[in-house]
């Protein structure tokens, strides 16, 4: 499935959050990741983030899409990650 | 259609970007907006952001989905915007 993940971590944990997300998804912009990921890996990513975060201050939103049909991805201005994208 | 918008603006323009996006979408997290929006309003939002941004440093990514069938929205940790969401 295709996933968009956005997070908002306190400064002292954001480095580890970045490292964790980068193992599974592509960094596209400040605190934004995206990519194709399987159910098992998404489960692992969520477990690692849950362990790492302070649930009273940190926030992660995960949008998952079984299909990317009828969807579009558009960039205005500079593309912070020059990689080609599948959407 | 359902839209997720993420931006990365230089400090001096981020206030105006926030104000502009809030006219059309719901703020959900630091530099992340989402919501249902029509074609005409999306066009207006893009025009306003294009006018406001410095295209060599600022970045906006707009993911648009004609259908939110087979999709899911999940929050880990604190939900920065307590509003209920349609996804």
Describe this structure in words.
The structure is a homodimer of 87-residue chains. With 87 residues, the first copy, chain A, is α+β, with helices and mostly antiparallel strands. Chain A has one domain (2-65): Alpha-Beta Plaits (2-Layer Sandwich), CATH 3.30.70. Chain A has helices at residues 11-22, 39-52, and strands spanning 2-8, 26-29, 32-36, 59-65, 71-77. In chain A, strands 2-3-1-4 form a four-stranded antiparallel sheet, with helices on one face. Chain A is globular. The termini of chain A are close together. The relative contact order of chain A is 0.28. Chains A and B meet through strand 1, helix 2, strand 4 and strand 5 of A and strand 1, helix 2, strand 4 and strand 5 of B. Chains A, B: One of its GO terms (molecular function) is metal ion binding. Chains A, B: It comes from Clostridium acetireducens DSM 10703. Chains A, B: Its cofactor is Mg(2+). Chains A, B: This is CRISPR-associated endoribonuclease Cas2.
Keywords:
homodimer; alpha+beta; Alpha-Beta Plaits; four-stranded antiparallel beta sheet
Hey, which two chains have the biggest interface? A-B, 39 and 39 residues
Task: Output mean pLDDT of chain A.
Answer: 92
Domain module count of chain A? 1
Shape of chain A: globular
Number of helices of chain A: 2
Order of helices and strands of chain A: EHEEHEE
Strand content of chain A: 25-35%
CATH architecture heading of chain A: 2-Layer Sandwich
């Amino acid at each position: 499935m295709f996933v968009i993940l956005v997070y908002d971590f306190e400064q002292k944990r954001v480095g580890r959050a970045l490292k964790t997300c980068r193992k599974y998804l592509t960094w596209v912009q400040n605190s934004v990741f995206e990519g194709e990921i399987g159910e098992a890996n998404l489960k692992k990513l969520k477990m690692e983030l849950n362990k790492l975060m302070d649930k009273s201050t940190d926030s992660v939103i995960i949008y998952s899409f079984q299909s990317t049909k009828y969807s579009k991805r558009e960039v205005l201005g500079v593309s912070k990650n020059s990689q080609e994208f599948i959407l």
